[in-house]
Automatic annotation (TrEMBL):
Protein name as it appears in the record: 2Fe-2S iron-sulfur cluster binding domain-containing protein
Pfam families on file: CO_deh_flav_C, FAD_binding_5, Fer2, Fer2_2
Every 2Fe-2S ferredoxin-type domain range: 1-75
Alphabetically ordered keywords of this record: FAD, Flavoprotein, Iron, Metal-binding, Oxidoreductase
Residue span(s) of domain FAD-binding PCMH-type: 143-321
Length: 435
């Protein structure tokens, strides 16, 4: 049985491999959250878990043990919920009403720094557009309370969790589950899941210093990475990556460790971590080990994680911290889009080429283009030299034609991005730290 708080009351449900949305609508007959896209795109299913707006269609019930869930049925009668609903009614921000509960939940649980546009990023409305909705939210400026990143779910020691993984090779670690639930078609009955939220291991949720290096815990959620001041100062490239990772609802669930573990060729964090020369830290009940992220990713959906191992975090070397960094993601829109391609570049003072770079979505793994990198180490870095370097890089990447783009388009844009990044990072302003 799974026990959690729902709208202020304890609830017990049987483990049947369902999503939270399925339980709310089918078992508990709470119809405020709606099934729209089923992939975290529309926001119609938004509820709050531990005070954070998330897509309930992507929440596996196994991750809810000890959680606190709030739905529109409970929020609407409160002062904050009533104020938001009244503002939407006054401004004409409601027509069919299908999207309205999700919008109310998203705004009520938004990050304090979010503007209406930020908060609405994960909510689609096909009737009113957004002018009246935005006007309504601006009239309801109730700020949410500060929420921590770790809830009362932690009822399992890290060692016990690792022992369970070692004893049962079929056990699948799950954090946010935003990718796993979609790949499973919202039917998780065939999966044995271990919720990583149950682990009593605060370091997995934190950014901390270790011997001059920066360590980012694998369970850091992308919404926290987006707003973390240490990351903004020392590894802003990861903040830039976070901007494009889904909606606020997805970022409130998805973790950096999960993004790497999925090992999608289009995963936005992969080229950034490779360019940062980061190392992945893996833990097992018998010990731990580290390796470069570049070596950890072995193919599309494949890594060097062994049975019983868990990604604990990522170690960013001191030499890359605070250096000029750039990340560009090319997609059909600014957010909630899978990359057509991406490029991450970091100034590295002791690197012969002066920079470290990696492309995403133009090969099965982040592409570092060794020949182009070696060529960059020798030359004047003028227009002719950069064009020659780019030509080498284009011979090393292996883009494909798919539903998102053509190989020819990816190759052409990748070359333009590499020249642009080199010019920016090799500029005198970047060298002085002005850019």
């Amino acid at each position: 049985m799974i026990t959690f708080q729902l709208n202020g009351a304890p609830v017990q449900i049987a483990h049947e491999g369902k999503t939270l949305l399925q339980v709310l609508r089918d078992d508990l007959h709470l119809s405020g959250a709606k099934l729209g896209c089923g992939e975290g795109e529309c926001g119609a299913c938004t509820v709050m878990v531990d005070g954070r707006p998330v897509c309930s269609c992507l929440v596996a019930t196994q991750t809810l043990q000890g959680a606190t869930v709030t739905t529109i049925e409970s929020l609407a009668p409160t002062p904050d919920g009533s104020e938001i609903c009244s503002a939407l009614a006054r401004t004409g921000g409601v027509q069919c009403g299908f999207c309205t509960p999700g919008i109310v939940m998203a705004w009520a649980g938004r990050h304090p720094d979010d503007t209406p546009d930020d908060a609405l990023e994960g909510n689609l409305c096909r009737c009113t557009g957004y002018v009246k909705i935005r006007a309504a939210l601006e009239q309801a400026p109730c700020l949410p309370q500060h929420r921590g990143t770790v809830s009362g779910k932690a009822d399992l020691s890290l060692q016990d969790g690792l022992a369970r993984l070692a004893q049962n090779p079929q056990l699948v670690p799950i954090a946010g589950g935003t990718d796993l639930v979609v790949r499973a078609g919202h039917d998780l009955g065939a999966h044995q899941l271990l919720s990583l939220e149950r682990l009593d291991a605060p370091e997995l949720h934190q950014v901390f210093w270790e011997d001059g290096n920066l360590v980012i815990g694998a369970l850091m959620r992308w919404q926290d990475i987006l707003h973390d001041p240490v990351i903004a100062r020392f590894v802003p490239i990861l903040r830039d990556v976070a901007h494009g990772v889904g909606s606020p609802q997805v970022r409130n669930a998805a973790t950096i460790g999960g993004n790497v573990a999925t090992a999608s060729p289009a995963g936005d964090s992969l080229p950034a971590l490779v360019a940062l020369q980061a190392r992945v830290r893996l833990i097992h009940h018998d010990g731990s080990r580290e390796m470069p992220v570049a070596a950890f990713i072995t193919g599309a959906g494949r890594t060097q994680r062994r049975a019983g191992e868990l990604i604990a975090g990522f170690v960013i070397p001191a030499k890359c911290l605070g250096q000029p960094q750039a990340f560009t993601k090319v997609g059909p829109r600014r957010a909630q889009a899978i990359s057509k391609l991406s490029l991450a570049t970091v100034r590295v003072p002791d690197d012969p080429a002066g920079i470290s770079f990696a492309f995403g979505a133009v090969g099965p793994v982040p592409m570092t283009c060794p020949k182009a990198h070696a060529s960059l180490a020798s030359g004047a870095r003028d227009k002719a030299h950069l064009n020659a370097v780019t030509a080498l890089a284009m011979s090393e990447i292996t883009p494909i034609d798919d539903m998102r783009s053509t190989a020819a388009y990816r190759r052409r844009v990748a070359g333009n991005l590499l020249i642009r990044h080199c010019r920016v990072l090799f500029s005198p302003a970047a060298g002085r730290g002005d850019g």
